[in-house]
Amino acid sequence: MRRFTAALAFGASAIALSTPAMAQDQSADQEQQTVEPADDTNVIIVTADRREQTLQDFAGTAFAITGDDLKALGVQNVTDLQNQVPGLSIANNQGNVEVYIRGIGSSNNTELGDPAAAFHFDGVNIPRPSGIGSAFHDIQRVEVNVGPQGTLRGRNATAGSINAITFRPGLGGFDGMIEAEYGNFDHRSLRGVLNIPLSDTVAVRFSGLYQENDSYYDNVGPVQGIDVAEAQDNLSGRAQLLWEPTDRLTILVAGDYIAENGTGYTGTNFALPLGALEDGNITQDQFDSIDPREVIARGITPDLNTDHWGIRTTIEYEGDGFNVEYTGSYRDAVYDYEATTPITPNFPGVLDRLSERDNPFTPEVGDVINDPIILAENLDDFSRFRIISDSRSHFHELRIFNSEGPFIWSIGGLYINEEQRSFLGNTGDRGPFFQGIEFNTQTDTDSYGIYADATYEISDQFRITGGIRYTDDKKERTGVAARYGLALGGGSFECCLGVRVGTEGFEFAAFDRIIINPDSDGDGTISEA
To answer: Fewest C-beta atoms under 10 Å: which of 188, 330, 479, 529?
Structure first.
C-alpha cells in the first residue's frame, strides 16, 4: 500500500504537520503520484516543483496537506486553509477568493487584475475563482508553493501558487462514500463519492457536495421580513473519466459544476457606532459590547447567484528519456450579486429616535444630519448596488520534462484566453438629486507563456538550478465608466427635486441596456439628444 506524507518546508528544514494518510496511486506527471515510504519514516515526499522528491532535496518552501487531514481539521472551504498554513491568507471579498502568501498578493478583483498568488485546480489555472470554494470536496491534497513559480507553472504567480488536487478515478476497485452533517444556524451538508471501474483500463468517479445554512446575522431593526447576509445554498458536482490504454498513455476527462446562491457577503457597517463613540454618545464599554451580527436591515434581501462550470482534458505520455503532458480546459464563471448594505449594527440609542416619532419615515425639523443616532428616513430611502462578472476562459498547457537525475529539466508553454463582461451599478438617493455610477465593460485577454527549468545534480550535496520565462500579456477593454447626476428642476440645479430610483421597483439593466454614444458624430461636442 502506498502512502503520502505532508509537511511544511523552510529551505532544507521541515516541520511535519500531518500524519501519514492513505492515498490513491496517481500519476507524477499530474503532480498526483504517491511513493513508497523510505526506511526512515522522517523522510517527507512532495511534488512542489512538479516532480516527486524528498523535502530535503526540494530547494524552496512548500506545504502539502492531505485530504484526510483537511477533514480532520474541519477544512470545508478553500478559505479555511489560511488557518492551517503559516503565512497564507485567503479571504472571500464579495465572492472573489483573494490569496496572499507571506503578505504578497493582489486585491485587484477587476477584469484588469490578475492574482499574484495563482490558484490552480488539478493543475488548471483558475483566473476568476468565484464560487470555487464549493468545489472543495473529494480532495486528495492541497499544495502551497511560496515564492515566484513562473519557471514551473502559473501566470503572474509572483507570490506563489495553490494547487488543489482531487482524487482521480481508481482502476480495479469499486468505492463509495456518503456523509451528512447538521448543525446550528440550520446548517445542512451532504457529501458523496462513487468510484466505478468499467474495465481494467477505464474507470469513472463522481463526487458531489450540497451545503445550506441560514444567515449568521440577525435583523433586529423595525423593518422585518428582510433577510440578511451569509445565508448559503450551494451545490457542486464533479465527474471524471480515466482511460489508460497502455502503460505509457493516460487520458483523463473531467467536468464540474458549481452553484452558489444565498444572500452573499455585505459585512457590517461600523461607521455610525464609531461616530457615536467619538462624539461621546456611547461609552467604550458599550462599543465593545456591540454584537456585529445584530444589524438593522433595510431595502431588499441580498441576492447572490453564482454559476461556475468547467471541463478539462489531461493527456500524459511516458516516453524514453522524457515525458509529455498536455492539459486543456474551458471555464465559465458568472457572479451576480445585488444588495443594500446594513445601515449599522445595533448599539445603545440607535433606535430611540425611531420610537419617538408619530411618523417614523418623516424627519422632524431640527434633525442634525451628522447625529450618530440613525435617521429614520434611511430605512425607506436607501441606495443599492449590483455586481455582475461573466468570465469565459480557455487554458492550454504543453509540457515536456525529465524527472530522472542527474540532469532534471522541463520545457513548457501555455496559452490563456479570457473574455469578460463586467458590470457595477450603484445608486444613491439621499441628496438633492440622484447620484449613481455605472461600470459596464467588455475585456478580452490573451496571454502566452514559455518557460524552462533545469537542475543538474553535481553530487548528493551540491546541485545547480536555473530557470527562465517569457510572458506576453495583452488586454483590451471597451465599454462605459460613468458617474451620473440626475435632477428635476433648473439647469443650474437651483431648484431641484429629489429623484427616487434606488428603492423598490428599480432594476439595473446591466448587460441588456443600450449604450448611447453622446458624441455620435465624433466632433467632440455632446449633442442635446
So the answer is: 529
